[in-house]
Amino acid sequence: xxxxxxxxxxxxxxxxxxxxxxxxxxxxxxxxxxxxxxxxxxxxxxxxxxxxxxxxxxxxxxxxxxxxxxxxxxxxxxxxxxxxxxxxxxxxxxxxxxxxxxxxxxxxxxxxxxxxxxxxxxxxxxxxxxxxxxxxxxxxxxxxxxxxxxxxxxxxxxxxxxxxxxxxxxxxxxxxxxxxxxxxxxxxxxxxxxxxxxxxxxxxxxxxxxxxxxxxxxxxxxxxxxxxxxxxxxxxxxxxxxxxxxxxxxxxxxxxx
Length: 257
What we know:
Oligomer: single chain
Order of helices and strands: EHEEEEHEEEEHEEEEHEEE
Strand content: 35-45%
Distance between the termini: 24 Å
Strand order of the largest sheet: 2-3-4-1-5-8-7-6
Number of strands: 16
């Protein structure tokens, strides 16, 4: 059971100590409803839905001092095989593959520059059921001070082929898997992202109007980190939610490649 091919981002979830706050903030912002996992061991993990379809999740942090963070999950048909590739390519296995009830198997890794990412091997739960519509995940992007190292690492781990893409003055890389560009990469930019900042993955949610949604996020207690601006694919903004988790918005002017 899979919603997207292996090697393609398929899910995103938020780990936060502010679970109740997140359950209020994101439905207000994106029109989501929440379905809380009934398993006591799930710790209140909530699947957000858009018109009845799963779009993202939120749960408690894995460790008490973990900063609030959105995680990107890449689909795989063998989490153990990916773990071996990560180690051989110079990355780190942060959490070895394990089963999440009957839903699937997951693992958490970090690349050589320290960017954390996860994989999802679906069983009963495939991941997100809708993409690229307002309120759903639309894009995932690595911000890293070591693009050259990342190009080698992710090609070895997922078979992604790096392609340089026009983005004004920014050195932007798209990762192609088969006939699709499935993710992107760029170096840190501007004062908000100093050159020595650690690498990280960020999740973009599609919205009808980036300016309106960013302003609404601020009204709800979030922070506009990078104000709305135009790029070839649409209009984007980077935000932090009320507990500090980073996420991005995009109103698409053309379909995602």
